[in-house]
Amino acid sequence: MKAVICLKKIALFVISAIFLSGTMISAETAIHQLDQISAYSAILMNADTGTVVFEKSAYQERAMASTTKIMSTLLTLEAGNLDAEFKVDDYAIRIEGTSMGLLPGDIVTRRALCYGMMLPSGNDAANAAAVSVAGNIGAFVDMMNNRAAEIGMNNTHFANPSGLDANRHYSTAFDMAKLIIEALKNSEFGTICGTKNIQLKYGNPPYLRWLSNNNKLLDMYDGCIGGKTGYTIDARRCLITAAQREGVTLIAVTLNAGDDWNDHIKMYDYGYAMYDRKIIDYDVSKYSVDVVGGEKDSVPVELAEPLYVNLLESEMAMVEIKVSPLPFLYGGFEKGEFAGNLVFYYNGSQIKSAALLTVESCKIKKEKLNFFEKCLQYVINLF
After folding, report:
1. Given this model, what pLDDT does residue 25 score?
2. What is the pLDDT of residue 22?
3. How far apart are CA 272 and CA 201, in angstroms?
4. Domain end (from 258, 274, 290)
5. Same-domain check for residues 159 and 266
6. Which of 21, 121, 132, 171 is catalytic?
7. Do residues 130 and 245 share a domain?
8. In a shared domain, residues 234 and 296
9. Is residue 380 one of the residues assigned to a domain?
10. From the DSSP assignment, how many helices (H) and strands (E) are in the chain?
11. Between vectors from CA 202 to CA 76 and to CA 183, what angle results, nearest 5°?
């Protein structure tokens, strides 16, 4: 038996509400701190649900500096062949600003360039990657804008792979939050942007050197899993980060900020103070799984473990539960046999699940013997 039930119609019992902020500040304090956000544009978004938890001029178009390299890195990773060595384009790496130290004739890999973009924010790495992936920088910029359209970044336009100030190079805090959510779906990207330091081999001939991440929030905030920094004269300080606690992944974006590190901490403190950990006490005792070849026709099921969710009250209306027992089990199993799943959906997308287990064991059904079979079994037992 299967059922899809809106949570509006079922009982939710809150077993506990836990403030997740590392400083355990009160919700009132967290709310007050939002008045002190220095950024001209800011947003805090739930990466799993897309819910905007907090925003300040988040839809206003602004320069976004080197946070641009999130897109450049994502496209480079999606191009594949990450560990194939090649010589950098000597003209492309002749670019001002931050660098991973590339020189004409250097031998690199796309993977090394991705680290070079995300950690020290190398403009040389961004240009070298663009030529490697698309053949030239202009074609790569077209790829960036096409990918932005696919993601739904409707108020974004890229003019270069590095993020240097340029005409028609802009985005919004909202769009950049959508970008890093998309990028984090790529496991390679998550590994790279969360790396604090790494030793890589490149050059001519290649030799080992260290790259360090400019993202100080990796050390400053418990739960920060990565992000990207940025700065230009036009854009000022820009920062995009992601944090994860108790199964909740939040994205923070600030554009043109005077105190971006503390802006992000304040937003995360607020976000994790707003999310509480609820246990869904959903009664599955009315469900059972059919048994084939067993002493019982069916057995009841239970949840293998409690089903916890971390959602705002406003998000609960978008929740559904689907109970899906297996079509049947064969007789001859013990109590605790896997018997299906209970799945928790938010806005049509699965976010949690718990296994269903049998409450009872069930032996194999023994067939009754007729007179001839009983006689035969008696003779066999004599020998």
Report:
1. 61
2. 40
3. 40
4. 274
5. yes
6. 121
7. yes
8. no
9. no
10. 10, 18
11. 20
C-alpha span between 75 and 376 (Å, rounded): 74
Number of residues that make up the chain: 383
Partner residues linked to 330 by β-bridges:
292
Q: What angle do CA 153, 345, 322 make, to 5 degrees?
A: 155
121 catalytic residue (yes or no) = yes
Beta bridge partners of 265: none
**Rounded Cα distance, 321 and 311, in Å:** 14
Among all chains, which residue has been given the structure tokens 């336009």? 157
For 7, the domain range is 3-15+280-358
Task: Exactly one of 66, 132, 162, 171 is catalytic; name it.
Answer: 66
Residue in this structure with the two tokens 């473990």, named with its chain if needed: 305
- For residues 10 and 46, state if they share a domain: no
Number of domains in the chain: 2
User: In angstroms, rounded to a whole number, what is the distance separating the alpha carbons of residues 267 and 32?
Assistant: 11
**Would residue 378 count as lying in a domain?**
no
Q: What distance in Å separates the CA atoms of residue 173 and residue 251, rounded to the nearest whole number?
A: 10
Return d(Cα 34, Cα 13) in angstroms, integer: 30
Closest by alpha carbon to 208, among 217, 218, 199, 221? 199
Query: Cβ contacts of residue 247 below 8 Å, gap of 6+?
Result: 308, 310
| CA–CA distance, 237 with 254 (Å, rounded to integer) | 8
Same-domain status, 65 and 80: yes
Residue type, 360: E
- Would you say residue 373 lies in a domain? no
Q: Is 363 a catalytic residue?
A: no
Tokens found for residue 166:
């340029």
Is 69 labeled as catalytic in the residue annotation? yes
The residues, ordered by sequence, that sit 6+ positions from 307 with a Cβ below 8 Å of its Cβ are: 279, 280, 282, 342, 344, 352, 354
What residue type is 345 in one-letter code? Answer: Y
pTM of structure: 0.77
Query: Which CATH number is 142's domain given?
Result: 3.40.710.10
The C-alpha R_g of the chain, in whole angstroms, comes to 28
Three-state DSSP class for residue 233? coil
Give the model's pLDDT for residue 376.
64
Residues of the chain short of pLDDT 70, as ranges, are: 1-27, 368-381, 383
3-state secondary structure of 13: strand
DSSP-based helix, strand, coil % in the chain, nearest 5? 30, 30, 40
Active-site residue, selected from the candidate residues 41, 56, 69, 352? 69
- Structure confidence at residue 26 (pLDDT): 62
